[in-house]
Amino acid sequence: MNAPAPEAAALLARLDDLGMRPYTEIGVFGARHAVEASRWMQGAKPGGVSTREVLADGGDGPLPVRVYHPEPGTELPLTVWLHGGGWVAGSVALADRPCRAIAAASRTVVASVEYRRAPETPFPGPLDDAVAATRWLATHAHTLGADGSRVAVGGDSAGATLATAAARRLRGARWLRRQVLVYPPLTPPDPDAHPSWKQFGAGHLLTREDMTWFWHHYLGCDPHAAIPPPDAAPLTAPGHAGVAPVSIAVAGCDPLRDEGVAYAVRLGETRVPVSLREWPDMIHGFLGMGGELAATAELVAWIADELSREET
Predict the structure, then answer these.
(1) Inter-CA distances, 215 with 6, 42, 109, 189, 266, Å
(2) Which residues belong to any copy of the Alpha/beta hydrolase fold-3 domain (predicted)?
């Protein structure tokens, strides 16, 4: 069985010493505060990237978007990024340093979307925002210094779920070239179908109880009461033909690992081009732990490589 790398195990122990409490205990506001406070793990802010703020169309009104350009004056491909946080927490501010790093490494214009969050706006609101914002950003790419004919959509954790569901809704859009999914939750926790929940569902930062709590807020109901809609839980979708090529990163010590692997297999069966990379000794959330884990830089480099990949 996989085990966390020594530096990841040390970080988990440190977080435990700091008295991290389950999201199920601290509630929505507590969860939002705790997630924002985790920025101390991200390390120094990458330089060399220009930023600007714009308003993009959302599912029910304008949404703030922070745009990162690594080479102002040069038209570059566009990457729409959707932050993690269980659809309940997280923000453009939380994703700032990872997005700077991705923009610099990939030489793409990264547009980070402040989509609406649950429980105030449950499914399909956050997904409607992701779809509408991606369309708007592609249409207005030239005003951002980007190429609207070369667009990728990506995200980490819950943002990755929104990214792949948005790509499903946007299938057929010739400008959408790729989806990049970093440790995505793709269906409510099911230890029988996905044994990584039994192996890592406690003691590895993200717990089964907390993930069930996030799903409950996102769906607005008990996530196990019925099969969720395919656009909410993409692993339940009956087909994937026609979606943009997919790149999936999973952490080996993450309870979500098996969902990401199963999704890659499902996509391959539908002949969707798919690239899967596993970091066997990493934990959930390590994209946002660059100040503590050396593997974060490797993940950013992989994202950059995948964003430049061209399917033949």
Answers:
(1) 31, 26, 31, 9, 22
(2) 80-287
Q: Is the pLDDT of residue 239 over 70?
A: yes
Dist. CA 101–CA 276, nearest whole Å:
21
Catalytic residue among 38, 91, 106, 157: 157
User: Domain limits of the chain?
Assistant: 6-307
Q: Quote the CATH superfamily of domain 6-307.
A: Alpha/Beta hydrolase fold, catalytic domain (3.40.50.1820)
Predicted local distance difference test score (pLDDT) of residue 310: 78
- In this prediction the pTM is 0.98
Catalytic residue among 210, 254, 258, 281: 254
Q: How does pLDDT run across 23-43, given as a tens digit for each residue? A: 999 999 999 999 999 999 999
Q: Is 157 a catalytic residue?
A: yes
